[in-house]
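Technical annex, item 7. During the second reporting period the consortium partners agreed on a shared format for inverse folding records so that results from different sites could be compared directly. Each record opens with the tokenized structure and is followed by the designed sequence. A conforming record, contributed by the partner at site C, is shown below for reference.
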């Protein structure tokens, strides 16, 4: 075999390996490589390619103008844009949002911004966990196309006098316990929507009330954005993933399992035929109080579509919990549909 023929076969094998990796491992992205080999002659430029490292570098910017330039280029190529808004300190729940966005084939923008507008005066804004370099690495490995991490000065260069408020939906649950919180959320998400102008945006259902508020804001303001919910991601023992989990002591983390256990029990009680929302709330409160030292913020059964009050459970409901373990406030929820529970029992 001639030397040229050997090189040609070696290059072909490496390219095929890269293509195989692209198909198998969707959490990594690789440059499309075209090696034009004419006859037995290898083009000189191929010798400068490092086929051992073909991972695309993550684009990063903290500037709105630069982000818009990047997105304008992608749109000119016919790409759809997907946005994943976060406050950083990424975990597998955030990465599940990225995975769902990548499945659409869109150019993915992940934003990291700890938004001061959504924190009250005595809340954990200053202590909220931050680690931008760690987050950037996780974002790159997950396949994010561009990481947008603006400063407060970039997002709010002058005192804010314009806010977005989604009435009614923000008056209950976390909205009742954290006045002004959802005004801050709706305002910053609205700003991100105007900056990025995404075709779709992805939100985790752990923050179910937030998801409903953003969905309603998009509908009311006629924004051409698809709001995509992604199911809660949990640890193997049931604890819902949250950036705030890092503040829990080992004992508090163990006690926090009472949240998912209570949600599972709510499903069992409904399956057994109980339909009184008040009785179910009382039972769950007692279970949490007996099973932990957590301080209950709320245990409520709400309509899953509009968070209105429910007396008798006859339609899909949200079982929503908020409990403080030490200084760490955790939320969890589960959407339960009576009809599906009854149907499943009939099948059994």
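Designed sequence (site C submission):
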């Amino acid at each position: 075999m001639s030397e040229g023929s050997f090189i040609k076969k070696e290059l072909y094998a490496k390219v095929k390996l890269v293509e195989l990796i692209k198909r198998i491992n969707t959490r990594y992205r690789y440059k499309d490589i075209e090696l034009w080999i004419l006859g037995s002659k290898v083009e000189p430029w191929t010798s400068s390619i490092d086929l051992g490292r073909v991972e695309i570098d993550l684009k990063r910017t903290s500037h709105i103008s630069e982000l818009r330039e990047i997105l304008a280029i992608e749109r000119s190529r016919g790409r759809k844009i997907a946005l994943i808004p976060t406050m950083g300190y990424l975990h597998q729940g955030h990465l599940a949002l990225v995975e769902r966005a990548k499945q659409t084939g869109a150019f993915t923008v992940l934003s990291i911004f700890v938004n001061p507008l959504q924190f009250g005066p005595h809340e954990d804004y200053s202590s909220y966990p931050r680690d931008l370099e760690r987050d950037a690495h996780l974002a790159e490995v997950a396949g994010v196309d561009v990481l947008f991490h603006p400063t407060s000065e970039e997002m709010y260069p002058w005192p804010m006098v314009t806010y977005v408020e989604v009435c009614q939906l923000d008056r209950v649950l976390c909205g009742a316990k954290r006045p002004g919180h959802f005004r801050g959320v709706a305002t910053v998400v609205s700003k991100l929507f105007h900056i990025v102008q995404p075709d779709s945006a992805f939100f985790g259902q752990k923050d179910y009330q937030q998801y409903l508020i953003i969905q309603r804001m998009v509908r009311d303001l006629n924004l051409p954005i698809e709001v995509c919910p992604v199911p809660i991601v949990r640890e193997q023992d049931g604890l819902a993933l949250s950036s705030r989990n890092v503040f829990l002591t080992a004992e508090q983390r163990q006690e926090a399992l009472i949240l998912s256990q209570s949600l599972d029990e709510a499903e069992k009680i409904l399956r057994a035929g109980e339909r009184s929302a008040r009785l179910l709330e009382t039972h769950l409160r007692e279970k949490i109080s007996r099973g932990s030292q957590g301080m209950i913020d709320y245990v409520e059964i709400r309509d899953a579509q509009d968070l209105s009050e429910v007396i008798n459970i006859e339609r899909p409901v949200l079982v929503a919990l908020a409990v403080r373990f030490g200084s760490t406030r955790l939320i969890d929820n589960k959407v339960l549909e009576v009809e599906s529970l009854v149907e499943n029992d009939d099948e059994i």
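The longest strand covers residues 295-303. The first helix runs from residue 3 to 24. All partners now use this format for quarterly exchanges.
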